[in-house]
Amino acid sequence: MNLSYLIEPFQYRFMVEAMLMAALVGGTCAVLSCYLVLKGWSLMGDAVSHAVLPGIVLAYIVGAPLAVGAFLAGLLCASGTGWITNHSRLKGDAVMGVVFTGLFALGLVMFTKVTTDVHLNHILFGSLLGIERSDMLQAVIAATLTLVILAVVRKDILLYLFDANQARAVGLNTTFLHYLFLALLSLTIVAALQAVGIILTVAMLIVPGCIGLLLSDRFGRMTAIASGAAIFSAIAGTYLSYFLNGETGACIVLTQAIILTLAALFGPKYGILFRARAARRAAAGREQ
Amino acid sequence: MSHGSTKLNKNDISSEIDLHVNEVTVAYNNGHVALFDTTFDLGAGTICALVGVNGSGKSTLFKTIMGFLTPTRGSVTIGGKPVQVAQKQNMVAYIPQAEDVDWAFPVSVMDVVLMGRYGYMNFLRIPRATDLEIAIESLRRVNMLDYKERQIGELSGGQKKRVFLARALAQRGRIVLLDEPFSGVDVQTEAAIIELLRELRADEHLILVSTHDLGLVPSFCDQVVIINRTVLAAGPTHDTFTQENLARAFGGTLRDLRIDHTDAPDGTSNEFRVLSDDEEPLIFGHDGRLVDHWHPGIDEEESK
Ligand SMILES: Nc1ncnc2c1ncn2[C@@H]1O[C@H](COP(=O)(O)OP(=O)(O)O)[C@@H](O)[C@H]1O
Ligand SMILES: [Mg+2]
Hints:
The complex is a heterodimer of chains A (288) and B (304). Chain A is mainly α and 288 residues long.
């Protein structure tokens, strides 16, 4: 095995583009994931990513950009579950489970009834290496828009998630922030779908946030670590998939999972090994 | 206290921060009516205790005053304005119940105190020099400045309360709502909180404190609102915090001791009743009014 073999992936334009695209999408998901993980809303990402399927099919039927259909369906699911939870005696997780599997099922039924040139496999698992120009453009726009808006409202959203009462007390419009956040989530998912597909999007929306939380106790640092880990995973995963001849999305998610495992074990403050060592030291100190 | 007189005169500046809770009914989404026909008024320069058993609706009332829950009937106004308008002017500061806070959240003590300043910052919420100064001064006032870089979970119960108190101070709200500030708190912090609330009262703030630590109430609250899903009694502590009202609100949950001293040397009827919720006991004379605050040592001296 020589060096030129190892740098081979970088010689193909489609590989480099795929890496950049995965990095952008992964980074965006990572930022969102910090909020989701802190709020305990990880499943929201799962719900919304599944619920976009009927939106995609409908968009296909009327000839609109698939991203638009996906975005609207995602937003509908996210706000719909919230609304139903607030107006019924069912708990949020149950409502979410019903709404997202229901919409996903509807999407599947619609999909088989409509003959499309979109492969279901691509929607479910992404097609980073074979992505079309227009899809790539949509994903880039969605991710960039999300990052720009988040840059402006990140502190407000953080306060809303941490202490909604305080957010109101200082005059923030919490209803607006809530729906804005759901809209950003939908937008991110639209971008992520292109890269890793419906099934694996949820990982990109949970794992980086968990890595950040394990390695830091400040939100700013947590976001930086999460994005760093996600961008690294995106590039490394895409790179590996070239050699493994495997699913790109799966390789990205796998890389993230490995980093998460390492962080959980070896993290300097919250890592399992560190804690065990600290506990041992404390016990030894007591004996003296 | 020189501020007693301003409270009676409703036309001066104190009326700006009058709190009116007017026939408020609040139902949760599951249909449970947590409060009904709840009415009371408070003015500036007051510390008012909100007392009631667990589940009587104290937190619900706070969240309604904060506009977080919308009454199905009735209204809450602050200085004649709806809550949302008052909040835009940073008039109301809120100190949440400890259980309502996610202590694992990756924010530092300083971050939390600065959250009290958001209403004064620009839309990016970048703190200006004054915001930082005020946050630091607020932390110093509650004696927590040394901890400003700590993650909020790494504090004792008393320290956590102080941080949120500092946030309320930093917000400069003239109305301060405290939900169970004394639960899980050491005696030192308890005394510090009470001292601070007294200072705020002297500074013409309106303070509403929920607590089920009954023995503490007469020592620093000049008004009391007793609730159990609605207002059972409201008014000055001396008239409201009576044995009869408390028995109505707390029923069998309080320990009730009767001590009859009719054979006291001076021959006067001298029946006492002691109500206790396992914290500081309350002592009532035969008229059902509070006997002056209890001092164990002195009391024994007197009964000899
Ligand atoms: N989110 C909620 N949904 C439904 N019922 C609630 C909710 N929060 C509180 N309750 C109910 O409302 C009543 C009043 O609760 P709360 O205001 O928290 O009482 P307190 O603060 O006095 O202990 C209780 O019976 C409680 O079970
Ligand atoms: Mg409560």
